[in-house]
Design brief:
Membrane topology (chains A, B, C): Multi-pass membrane protein
GO cellular component, one term (chains A, B, C): plasma membrane
Shape of chain A: globular
Structural class of chain A: mainly alpha
Distance between the termini of chain A: 48 Å
Helix content of chain A: over 70%
Protein name (chains A, B, C): UPF0126 membrane protein
Family (chains A, B, C): Belongs to the UPF0126 family.
Oligomer: homotrimer
Subcellular location (chains A, B, C): Cell membrane
Radius of gyration of chain A: 17 Å
């Protein structure tokens, strides 16, 4: 049982911050898609809680934390309200939102990996579920908004790789029995910084070979 | 244990009616999308059973009722057949279908909330899952049909709000210990009537502030 | 307990082959949609493991086999790498891939049905889940790629029907107590051959009556 990496109240606060910023990204997309106030709230909830919900259903941790902790449920509603009333201001600080989103990504890939391992999964499976925890909410967000998940698109800065690195660091720490608040904090920070660098320098992953010249850039025509 | 609000056979009949009308809405969309007969059956099943399936997986009630009660599974197939052979006639009575759909909405938000509470969830979480039970099938229907979920669109009459009110009434009744067939029946009827009024008077929810003037109305251009 | 129909290592090898070819189909769609290398890997994993994951979550077999057997997880990554480097060659042998995909379809509808029955579901529900196991990954693949699931489209050769026949044969065998490696092998082969015939002769399912003349053929305009 290694779940309490951090002081419980510190962990809980970090979780709420991550949930809040993920919810902001969902609510902003909802505004861009012209959804009404309930659509904004639904997309905020799904984006913020979807990854953890997916993980908990898969590992059999039901009812999922999203439904047992009132703070987890209410936080996205605050984010939705904020965006509803102040979305031009929130969009103007998009860069700041992206920094928080990177923090959420780093945090959730680590806590997701640890929770999956705690429920008896193997190291590789735990890392995969940590990744799913970190990116699952965003994928559900894009599916509900009827868009190609930004995770999968080649023309977006690296998003999965920082989470993969974070999850991999955690399973390495577990493997060599050195997982503690410092090493897991290091994994969080590594994923966070990698994501910031990817945004700053527009790091992208390669597409399939021979594809670059022939592909139509406009995938909506596909 | 408060699950048997109504006489079991009454409850079961109501469930089947709700499942049937939800399935009709799925099958009609499938016809409009030009799906074949199996696509019609799949969309009918998913629309009718998706919300309850989601709820049961989340609360850990597996295998879900959708897979243990043969009537739940077969009813959408009848709806699919009916629409397959008679869809112009069914579309002509769309107004009637909408009334039944409103009844299904009212019924499922109430029974979904009660079942979630029975499985140990808190009041807020139970209401949220009741809402998910009522609207989840329709969201899955629209996702599979590759459309923006009509639940999220600002240009559709209120759909979530009646279900939220119904679920909220149920948790208030639970909170004050007055849940019985009469009060829960009242919650069903309230959600039902609110949905009918929303359709009759085209009640809509607001979009984000400043958005009304600048948004392109055609979201498919988004 | 009837799960071990075949010699365990034979069964496992067959599973891996099915997973591999399903992953190829996901990876090829990802290349066509112009996804980057991580998008290719994600779509390969989801296509290959999604159907079984869905089944295991519904029947309560958590953590799902996809997360407890390392081979299940790693095989789609090999398929993704292969397509990433050699996709023109893989597309050229598309016909061969389709044959393997048909084999995966036949195999998974049978093993999915048997596993669902083993977990206590009724015969009809087991057949339905067997079908979901066989086609679920492909539906998730198309939803993530933001396309109308090819399963639902009338202009694609029959895909669900062979799986339905295979699942139905299995539940008939269970019902009459004659399920054994030979009869279940016969069900696999029947589904496999039906799918091959459907591709060879372009068998299609009918759309709703009156629809053929009036429907716009271009559903993307819908």
């Amino acid at each position: 049982m290694i779940q309490q990496l951090f002081n419980p109240s510190v962990q809980h606060t970090l979780d709420l911050v991550g949930i809040f910023v993920f919810a902001i990204s969902g609510a902003l997309l909802a505004v861009r898609k012209n959804f009404d106030v309930f659509g904004i709230a639904v997309l905020a909830e799904v984006t913020a809680l979807g990854g953890g919900l997916l993980r908990d259903v898969v590992i059999g941790a039901v009812p999922p934390a999203a439904f047992t902790d009132l703070g987890y449920f209410v936080t996205p509603l605050f984010a939705a309200l904020l965006v509803f009333f102040l979305h031009p201001e929130v969009e103007r600080i998009q860069a700041g939102v992206n920094v928080f989103d990177a923090a959420g990504l780093g945090l959730f890939c680590v806590t997701g990996t640890v929770k999956a391992y705690d429920y008896g999964l193997g190291l590789t499976a735990s890392a995969a579920l940590g990744l799913a925890t970190a990116v699952g909410g965003g994928v559900l967000r894009d599916v509900l908004a009827n868009e190609v998940p930004s995770l999968l698109r080649w023309d977006r800065d690296l998003y999965a790789v920082p989470a993969i690195v974070g999850s991999a660091l955690v399973v390495l720490c577990i493997r060599y029995d050195v997982l503690n608040p410092f090493t897991s904090g290091f994994a969080v920070v590594t994923a966070f910084v990698l994501r910031l660098l990817a945004m700053r320098f527009h790091w992208r992953a390669p597409r399939a070979w021979h594809r670059r010249s022939t592909a139509r850039e406009d995938e909506s025509a596909g």
